[in-house]
Amino acid sequence: YQNYPTYLNSFSRDELQGEIPEPSSLTKCAQESTRLTPARERIFPCGLQATSLFNDTFAFLDSDRKPLTMDRSGIAWETDLQMVANPDGYPDRSRPGFSWLYQRYPRTIPENSGMRTEAFVVWLRPSATPRTHKRYGVL
User: pLDDT, tens digit, for every residue of 74-106?
Assistant: First the structure.
């Protein structure tokens, strides 16, 4: 559930604001599986919220079976967008040992926007109820 305290507290505010803190300071990302990949790369950003991103994709067809275009822009609150930032130099390919969002969710997170992707920002806003309702896009 997105409103479960363990889930709500499992994130690094510093990382979401574009900082790259020392691994020892990531105490809120308590579970190792939300901090490190099996290959021991550092998951950025860490935590249950970032590593449980809803990454399903959908295709909608009109009555003639032609694909409809979904607009995924404008789905996040501007105040929420202001709370996230990519680190300076993102994505720094010379920085070894990092697993970025776009690498883990290539069909959902474009490399050029990273954490500033509206789908990710929408996901970070916790649900008030056990059922998760998130804006996905506009047809």
Answer: 999 999 999 999 998 888 776 788 999 999 999
CA distance 93 to 91: 6
Coil, helix or strand for 67? strand
Residue type, 70: M
List C-alpha distances in Å: 74 to 42, 52, 82, 130: 30, 22, 13, 25
Long-range contacts of residues 127-130, Cβ cutoff 8 Å, at least 24 apart: 127/1, 127/2, 127/3, 128/3, 129/3, 130/1, 130/2, 130/3
pLDDT of 22 strictly over 90 = no
Cα–Cα nearest to 52, from 21, 114, 8, 113:
8
Angle at 77 between CA 43 and CA 60, to 5 degrees: 80
pTM beyond cutoff 0.90? no
